[in-house]
Specification:
The complex is a heterotetramer. Chain A is elongated and about 55 Å long. In chain A, α1 crosses α3 and α3 packs antiparallel against α4. Chain A has a single domain, classed as 3 helical TM bundles of succinate and fumarate reductases, CATH 1.20.1300. Helix content of chain A is 62%, strand content 1%. Chain A is built from 4 helices and 1 strand. Chain B is α+β, with helices and mostly antiparallel strands. In chain B, a hairpin with a 2-residue loop joins β6 and β7. Chain B starts with a strand and ends with a strand. Chain C has 6 helices and no strands. The termini of chain C are far apart. Chains in contact: A-B, A-C, A-D, B-C, B-D. The interface between B and C is medium-sized, with 26 and 24 residues. Bound molecules: flavin-adenine dinucleotide (FAD), protoporphyrin IX containing FE, iron/sulfur cluster (SF4), FE3-S4 cluster and FE2/S2 (inorganic) cluster. Protoporphyrin IX containing FE (HEM) sits at the interface of chains A and C.
């Protein structure tokens, strides 16, 4: 067989296949969880660090009183003003994102080390319940405000 | 020069658990660690066991933990391995120990097979070669260098934790085909890799990249597979 | 706990570089923050559900022991945030991989740069609160 | 006790030839592959430079030219019917590999890229031709990986880390093999209709060698012990460019890309020995030239090595001197020869881009081996009688395409072309043949041999014997041979064989007893060393890789024939199949 060297046959699309669509994968949960960890993490940098800065740097835990909470949350029964709505949104978002992020993080760790399936599911079930319960309580308190009546008048408006 | 070798020994027919064997040998500083092991085997204790074949970093037989870190014994020179006149050699982690430096490689190869490490293309190829541009060839070049030595997979903390994790080596193999313009099996491979024990187990630790004796950018390739799954595009 | 023990042992045995240790820290810090967060949200919810207990817990947070834990938490959170950004960026932009060594070092440096003043400020607050005027004088 | 398995076809060895055979045989019959290494550890993976095929992708080429080059390279000892098959089917085989997914380097227009290689020429202009298809300098690695991948795809059954130690041949019919499962130390009897031996070379007979520790010639040694002959054992190739003292190969691809040899005076000495092909003359010619320079006191610093120079500026200078328009730069060299450059950096600690590399000839390739016909069927004697049910391919075999000296890149062609032919033929045979009965005691011979070594209480160390063997072979059965040298070697080998009977090993266990297996392999090395020396002594001429200083010329009248050596050291001869090309003087 004699073939002359390099008679180029570059017709259009000869090597085409540059961007093929990958199929939508069947199991999307792990993928979604993975992406959530990254994106929520990026948002949390701002929320969590600003919260930390506010509570621990500009103010000190040492100066923390019920009053400072009232200043942001308002008190039970009070009609929320713009400021209170702002803090509700800020804390609500922080709480939700962080809890979900933490819960999924915990799931990853548990998945790594708990190979006995019932143990894994049991542990994650309990953890999920606990985290949901605490989160719901937290959000409820955020919306309902500081229960000034139960504070025995310690808080000055 | 004089070299003090500390080798983790274990004989399943005799020992309850591994112990350290210590050997003093004479070696050239430009010798390979493998040569030192051979010297021990041929002149001190023939019962020392380890895998080896090519002796120049091309067959992938002799992955072991040298001074705590994975390496091919035949690709690490004595002068680079001695610390205070001594070298420690242990089997790789995460695979069942059989004898001395020999571990069971079967789980490793099972993961390899799981990602369909072969070209899938059911079109009639014709009489001549399928055409591929130089750029397309370069796109997947890195992964083709892999010699399946398992240095990467057995250095990965996620793999130590879960032997079910397919591991970096298998992902590198999958990458080699997913990004080959001649291949059409990407969909099926990604189905495997999107599972919980697929790419998501990779926590970007970089141990794999740091030990690959073929200088493959393992973590980068894993990242590209993750991106393929995230964006649904292969380019 | 299946492989927890072996993994911890192997992690200690294996001589990984920065990447491995950052990962260990990330994991520990993440779990630590989660633990604190649960406690903290529980405590805050008591501002509505049970104010007296809420106030007792706030008092507890002001004790020296908790002040020290708070310091640790600060470092963990800052580290987790900075390192989290590193991981997220590397994961979402594979082309940055070539710079991973640099990224690891940067993450550590940024953590220190943010954590150091934070800790100093927090220590001053704590000393002020517990030792009062003495510290205030020194601080001035 | 031995475990028992039954398969239509068995392939022993999972290098390129074994996998190719298995791939094709498994398409129609129940096939198993037995390998003492994981398949991807086979030494085919070390092959660097390329695989020859007259694709004509870069410049005009014809398979007939390839055939002529092969015959000439083999110093006219090649069987020309086999060479025709080799070169014609090479084209098909390379395309086949590409279709299987092999990542060949590409030309700008997307075809398989090719490069120059020693001894391959345009027959009209006599100039080197680009015929070696390659994937960087990892061609063998890619072939091995690709074939293994295809075997996985086709569900070929593998017995990895099983070492064959005996064959079952009864009444001239091969009925299976006996192997040790390394992990348990247990014996397994594999009962089959057909067996293919693809166990690779035996370079470990020498000390300075490019070959892997595992290349101990188990297949050919067992053949000898079964009272079957080996062909052309005196023809062993010494590759000119091994890393000094280590023997690690630096592929001829380096010279294909323009590298040259220089001596202590900085001369490009190959100009004197091969005026046309120069540094791309055949390997035997280059190796001898290097040693002639060394003898003339032109070795570097008066020592026993010369330089291989692939500094880009030097290469360009030589291109210029040759009137070639090609130019290279460091980047080009790095992308074309990445592994070779890394070997030099890692193992010598020098950078070949800025410094020349010390090299010395290294034992490399067995032209001889188990005699076969064109369908890889093993021959029982010089008359062409075949051993029913027994096949061989690859470096272990000798179809005699390589004759007295193999051309670079032709071994990879050999393994794929004859591996495939053998696999297909074996499957056809299995489809019509019946299982022949085997005895319950088939494994007892192997068991006795292994237990003999395990429990031997002598005083000799196998390591010491191996070392002495390799030393004598390097010294006396190397590039230059004489009657005296060969006789000394034979005497030494025989006394080592006596000592071998009194060895003692440290590991008495069953599981993963590499001490035992290495000692067993040493027995193979000794047998093959003896066969090599005996064959060399009988061939009183110089041809290709076999150079006798006491008979420096080729002698077509008396020695244009293949040597067949038998276990009791007697020798018979077989004629060479001459076709289109009559023997002429060989000049490069
Ligand atoms: C460094 C180097 C570079 C080379 N470069 C080139 C090149 O560029 N071009 C070229 O054409 N050729 C080249 N060659 C030559 C070529 O690579 C080999 O000749 C060829 O690959 C041999 O293939 P094979 O299939 O016969 O055997 P191998 O690949 O050696 O495989 C042998 C197989 O047999 C198995 N085996 C052995 N003994 C037993 C036993 N007792 N029981 C069970 N299994 C056993 C082994 O496990 C292995 O799987 C090179 C060789 C070397 C050493
Ligand atoms: C402040 C900004 C934060 C960023 C940028 C961030 C980022 C990340 C990222 C990217 C991961 C995934 C790591 C991986 O998969 O390897 C992760 C894991 C985790 N995060 Fe965060 N996170 C932040 C805050 C938090 C908070 C507030 C919590 C606690 C509720 C938390 C708890 C966890 C846990 C438990 C893990 C799992 C650790 C592991 O799998 O090893 N993180 N974080
Ligand atoms: S990617 Fe590198 S370390 Fe991993 S198996 Fe392949 S060659 Fe070995
Ligand atoms: S070490 Fe493991 S976690 Fe990922 S980056 Fe490598 S696979
Ligand atoms: S012995 Fe082959 S890679 Fe080390």
């Amino acid at each position: 067989m004699t073939t002359a060297g390099s008679t180029a046959v570059k017709d259009a699309g000869m090597y085409k296949r540059s961007t093929r669509p990958a199929p939508p994968p069947r199991n999307n949960f792990e993928r979604a969880a993975w992406m959530y960890m990254r994106y929520s993490g990026l948002v949390l940098v701002f929320l969590a660090l600003s919260h930390w800065g506010l509570q621990h740097i500009f103010n000190s835990v040492q100066d923390l009183t019920l009053q400072s909470t009232v200043n942001r949350w308002g008190v039970t029964g009070q009609v929320a003003n713009f400021q209170i709505w702002f803090w509700r949104a800020y804390y609500g978002l922080l709480l939700g994102l962080a809890m979900l992020h933490g819960l999924n993080g915990l799931r990853q760790v548990a998945y790594d080390y708990m190979h006995f399936r019932p143990l894994y599911w049991g542990f994650m079930g309990l953890s999920t319940l606990l985290i949901i319960a605490v989160s719901v309580a937290g959000i409820a308190a955020l919306l309902l405000g500081v229960n000034i009546a139960a504070a025995g008048g310690a808080v000055v408006r | 020069m004089k070299v003090h070798l500390k080798i983790k020994r274990f004989n399943p027919e005799k020992d309850k658990k591994p112990y350290w064997g210590e050997y003093d040998i004479e070696a050239d500083e430009s010798d390979r660690v493998l040569d030192a092991l051979q010297t021990v085997k041929w002149t001190i204790d023939g019962a020392l066991n380890f895998r080896r074949s090519c002796a120049h970093g091309i067959c992938g037989s002799d992955a072991m933990r040298i001074n705590g870190r994975n390496a091919l014994a035949c690709k690490l020179l004595i002068r680079d391995a001695v610390h205070n006149g001594a070298i420690t050699v242990e089997p790789i982690l995460g695979l069942p120990l059989i004898k001395d430096l020999i571990v069971d490689m079967e789980p490793f190869f099972a993961h390899y097979r799981a990602v369909m490490p072969f070209l899938v293309n059911n079109n009639e190829p014709g009489e001549r070669e399928r055409l591929q541009s130089q750029e397309q060839r370069a796109r997947y070049d890195d992964g083709t260098k892999c010699i399946l030595c398992a240095c990467c997979t057995t250095s990965c903390p996620s793999f130590w934790a879960r032997g079910e994790y397919v591991g970096p080596a298998a992902i590198v193999q999958a990458h080699r085909f997913i990004f080959d313009s001649r291949d059409e099996g990407a969909a099926d491979r990604l189905e495997v890799l999107v599972e919980p024990d697929g790419v998501w187990r990779c926590r970007t630790v970089f141990n794999c990249t740091e030990v690959c004796p073929r200088d493959i950018q393992v973590t980068k390739l894993i990242g590209e597979v993750k991106q393929a799954l995230v964006t649904g595009k292969i380019d | 706990m299946g492989t927890l023990f072996t993994t911890v042992r192997d992690t200690l045995r294996y001589k990984g570089r920065e990447g491995q240790w950052l990962w260990v820290l990330h994991r520990i810090s993440g779990l630590g923050i989660l633990f604190y967060l649960i406690l903290h949200v529980y405590d805050m919810s008591l501002a509505y559900f049970n104010v007296p207990v809420h106030e007792q817990m706030i008092a507890l947070f002001k004790t020296p022991l908790f002040s020290v834990l708070e310091l640790a938490l600060a470092v963990l959170l800052i580290f987790h945030a900075v390192n989290g950004v590193r991981v997220a960026l590397l994961d979402l932009r594979p082309e940055l991989w070539a710079k991973q060594q640099l990224a690891t070092r940067l993450a550590l440096i940024i953590t220190v740069v943010i954590a150091a003043p934070t800790i100093i400020i927090m220590i001053i607050y704590t000393i002020n609160a517990h030792l009062g005027p003495v510290a205030t004088t020194i601080a001035r | 006790m031995a475990q028992y398995h039954q398969f239509d076809a068995l392939v022993v060895g999972a290098g390129g030839s074994g996998l190719m055979a298995a791939l094709y045989a498994s398409k129609s019959v129940n096939t198993a592959v037995i390998s003492k290494l994981y398949p991807t550890r086979s030494h085919t993976g070390a092959a660097q430079g390329g695989i020859a095929a007259a694709l004509g992708n870069m410049e005009p080429d014809k398979w007939e030219w390839h055939a002529y080059d092969t015959v000439k390279g083999g110093d006219f000892l090649s069987d020309q019917d086999a060479v025709d098959v080799l070169c014609q089917e090479a084209v098909e085989a390379v395309i086949d590999l590409e279709h299987m997914g092999l990542p060949f380097d590409r030309t700008p227009d997307g075809k398989i890229s090719q490069r120059r290689f020693g001894g391959h020429s345009n027959n009209e202009t006599k100039k080197p031709v680009m015929r070696a298809c390659h994937a960087a300098d990892r061609t063998g690695h890619m072939i091995l990986q690709t074939l293994y991948q295809q075997c996985i795809k086709n569900n070929v059954r593998f017995f990895d880390e099983f070492q064959m130690v005996d064959m079952i041949i009864v009444d001239g019919v091969c009925r299976g093999i006996v192997a040790v499962e390394l992990n348990t130390g247990e014996l397994h009897v594999f009962h089959s209709k057909a067996v293919m031996l693809a166990t690779g070379g035996f370079g470990k007979v020498w000390k300075i060698t490019s070959n892997a520790h595992s290349l101990t010639g188990d297949g050919p040694a067992i053949i000898l012990r079964k009272n079957l002959p080996l062909e052309d054992m005196e023809f062993y190739q010494f590759h000119p460019t091994g890393i000094y003292k280590m023997g690690i190969l630096l592929s001829e691809a380096a010279r294909g890309e323009g590298a040259v040899f220089i001596n202590d005076k900085g001369e490009r000495f190959m100009e004197r020995y091969a005026p046309t092909m120069k540094d791309l003359a055949s390997r035997d010619v280059c190796s001898r030239s290097i040693y002639k320079e060394v003898r003339a006191g032109n070795g570097i610093g008066g020592k026993d090595y010369v330089y291989l120079d692939f500094r880009p500026d030097r290469i360009n200078k030589y291109f210029e001197a040759d009137g070639s328009p090609r130019r290279v730069d460091a980047e080009y060299i790095e992308t074309r020869l990445p592994d070779i450059i890394e070997f030099v950096r890692v193992y010598m600690g020098i950078d070949p881009i800025v410094e020349p590399v010390p090299i010395q000839p290294t034992a490399h390739y067995a032209m001889g081996g188990i005699p076969t016909d064109l369908d890889a069927r093993v021959l029982a004697d010089e008359t062409g009688k075949v051993v029913e049910g027994l096949y061989a391919a690859g470096e272990a075999a000798c179809v005699s395409v390589h004759g007295a000296n193999r051309l670079g890149t032709n071994s990879l062609v050999d393994i794929v072309v004859f591996g495939r032919r053998g696999g297909i033929r074996m499957a056809e045979y299995c489809q019509q043949a019946q299982f022949q009965p085997i005895s319950q005691e088939s494994h007892t011979r192997a068991e006795a041999i292994l237990n003999g070594i395990r429990n031997s209480t002598g005083a000799e160390s196998p390591g010491q014997i191996r070392k002495e063997l390799q030393m004598h072979m390097d010294e006396h059965v190397g590039v230059f041979r004489t009657r005296e040298k060969l006789e000394i070697a034979l005497e030494e080998i025989r006394s080592l064989k006596e000592r071998y009977k009194k060895i003692k090993i440290d590991d008495k266990g069953m599981r993963w007893n590499t001490d035992l297996m290495e000692a067993w392999e040493l027995g193979c090395l000794l047998d093959l060393a003896e066969a090599t020396a005996v064959s060399g002594l009988a061939r009183e001429e110089s041809r290709g890789g076999h150079y006798r200083e006491d008979f420096p010329n080729r002698d077509d009248v008396n020695f244009l024939k293949h040597t067949m050596v038998w276990t009791d050291n007697h020798i018979t001869y077989k004629p060479v199949h001459i076709g289109r090309y009559q023997p002429t003087e060989r000049k490069y």
